[in-house]
TrEMBL record:
Gene3D superfamilies registered for this protein in UniProt: NADH:ubiquinone oxidoreductase, 30kDa subunit
PROSITE patterns, A to Z: COMPLEX1_30K
UniProt-recorded name of the protein: NADH-quinone oxidoreductase subunit C
Highest taxon of the lineage: Bacteria
Enzyme class: translocase
Organism: Flavobacterium gilvum
Subunit structure: NDH-1 is composed of 14 different subunits. Subunits NuoB, C, D, E, F, and G constitute the peripheral sector of the complex.
Family: Belongs to the complex I 30 kDa subunit family.
Taxonomic lineage: Bacteria, Pseudomonadati, Bacteroidota, Flavobacteriia, Flavobacteriales
Amino acid sequence: MALETTEIQQKVYETFGSKVLGFNQDKDIFTFEVESDIITAVILYLKNEPTLRFHFLTDLCGIHYPDNEENRQFAVVYHLHNWYDNKRIRIKSFLNGLNPEIKTVTNIFLCANWMERETYDFFGINFIGHPQLKRILNMDEMTSFPMRKEFPLEDSGRTDKDDRYFGRTPSNC
């Protein structure tokens, strides 16, 4: 019998209660939120529970929501896959904007190592307990995190760019 989203929701909610919320079927992927303090417990449960069997971490990434309230300005998103039933789920965990940190899942999925390093490198999210949390793509000397939405998309001070070449004139900019 194929694994149904209602079964996933029921098992997760029975085990973790109100710390998991926002269950939603978004197109072809089942999504829910988990409070950041229990993320490792939830992911370990999803991996080891005999009927759920989410044994593969497909992706882990960060998102910056600068307009959200302070305790929801960052999110870490986990995509898990159950190969047996070909079922995918997405888990979001929101973090504080002043000190974005969450426990590492490298002890559950080894492939999370580089994904967490990349998320740290671009968003500045600290993964507590990560074995080697340092920049992976940017220079070590960088003091900013380039994927944060703190900077304008274009540099207004550039003089080497002529808007006419991009189909823009001062009247429609």
